[in-house]
Amino acid sequence: MSQKRVLTGITTSGTPHLGNYVGAIRPAVEASLTGEFESFFFLADYHALIKAQDPDLVHQSTLEIAAAWLALGLDPDRVTFYRQSDIPEIPELTWLLTCMTAKGLMNRAHAYKGAVQVNIEAGEDEDNAINMGLFSYPILMAADILMFNAHQIPVGKDQIQHVEMARDIAQRFNHHYGEHFVLPAAQVDEDVAILQGLDGRKMSKSYGNTIPLFLTEKQLKKHINKIKTNLLEPGEPKDPDSSALFQIWKAFATESQTAEMRREFANGIAWGEAKRQLFELVNEQLLEPREKYMQLLENPAQVEDVLVRGAVKARKESTLLIKKLRSAVGIRPLG
Ligand code: TRP
After folding, report:
1. What pLDDT score does 335 carry?
2. Helix, coil or strand: residue 187
3. Are residues 165 and 250 in the same domain?
4. 43 lines ligand 1 (CB under 6 A)
5. pLDDT, tens digit, for every residue of 147-199?
6. Same domain, 225 and 102
7. Residue 202 lies inside a defined structural domain of this protein
8. Average pLDDT, the chain
9. Over the range 202-241, which residues count as b (16 or more CB within 10 Å of their CB) and which as e?
10. Is position 200 within any domain?
């Protein structure tokens, strides 16, 4: 294995938004095109079930997210692009890892602790509405990563702890059963933009403040018009660095366009005009992908075909590794 392996998953519990694009899809697609890495990208649909228990939503989100990646230039021949649930070796590995994971480690996971805290503050039982999926979530994620011996895991800051847990679990497994796993590391790219949403908080489906990636022009304009600004009048200088609008501009613009907008802010550009220009900039870049996306949504069988082929590629590895692991833990033929 000479090239470094990069692997990341996208939970299929929503509609792709601008934040997903600039924070994850765009850098991943760009990295995959350099040929410098071997890339594994997958749709984490088992992870989606932890929170999204509406079957139609999970199904539709899987189609939309797969179509978005393809429409935005992911070339399935240059990467391994697959759906988690098409790899039965992943849940199998999850169990092997579960039996090597200290319960105390899971008690410390932020996502789980956060949910407990919410219950305590609401005066509920600590375990209220917490399923075992949420509790064991980091182990499933460790299986995703260790299954393909990935080195680098590009993630947002909120996921660093999970990658560290995958590393801990791998170490423990290696120590007990022999060296089977590469130890993964989180890769947090400081240059990658984290967009604010409509209300100024981080753009996230959990806050309901997102701008979906693929809207009609009219809807895109409407969403951009909803971005929170302040009461400064046209002609009054505005601060770009505290403006969600400027941040989104920066994530889509060239350096010189960004410098130009900075000057416009200093000169007191009207919010309405800034929004109009932002719409033009974003819309222009999404024109082609939008068309491709719409075409894929109308042909889900085409997307399915891509994923099925991706799974065949991925399983060439996962079936071999799981065979070795089963044997390593003592699950092997008797004769
Ligand atoms: N938990 C990740 C998220 O919510 C998604 C994910 C699942 C993932 N499995 C992964 C990311 C493996 C990186 C590697 O964003």
Report:
1. 86
2. strand
3. no
4. no
5. 999 999 998 888 999 999 999 999 999 999 999 999 999 998 887 778 899 99
6. no
7. no
8. 95
9. bbbbeeebbbbbbbeeeebbebbeebebeeeeeeeebebe
10. no
- What residue ranges of the chain have pLDDT lower than 50? none
Q: What is the model's pLDDT at position 5?
A: 95
Mutating to test ligand 1, I would choose from 5, 6, 11 the residue with most ligand atoms within 8 A of its C-beta, which is: 11
Query: With a 6 A CB cut-off, is 44 part of the ligand 1 pocket?
Result: yes
Let me know whether 125 and 232 are in one domain.
Answer: no
pLDDT at position 306 is 98
pLDDT at site 2: 67
Ligand 1: does its nearest atom lie under 6 Å from the Cβ of 24?
no
Measured on CA atoms in the order 300, 304, 306, 307, is the torsion positive or negative? positive
Query: Does the beta carbon of 153 sit less than 6 angstroms from any atom of ligand 1?
Result: yes
Q: Which domain holds residue 137?
A: 5-194+300-329
DSSP code for 130: -
Tokens of 126: 């600590």
- Residue 60 domain flag: yes
Please choose from 7, 10, 40, 164 the residue to mutate so as to test ligand 1's pocket, defined by most ligand atoms within 8 A of CB: 10
Of all protein residues, the one whose alpha carbon is nearest to atom 11 of ligand 1 is 9
**Cα(277) to centroid of ligand 1, in Å?**
34
52 phi-psi bin (left φ>0, alpha ψ -120 to 50, beta other): beta
What is the total count of domains within the chain? 2
| 335, part of any domain | no
Upper half-sphere CA count for residue 272 (Cβ side, 13 Å) = 3
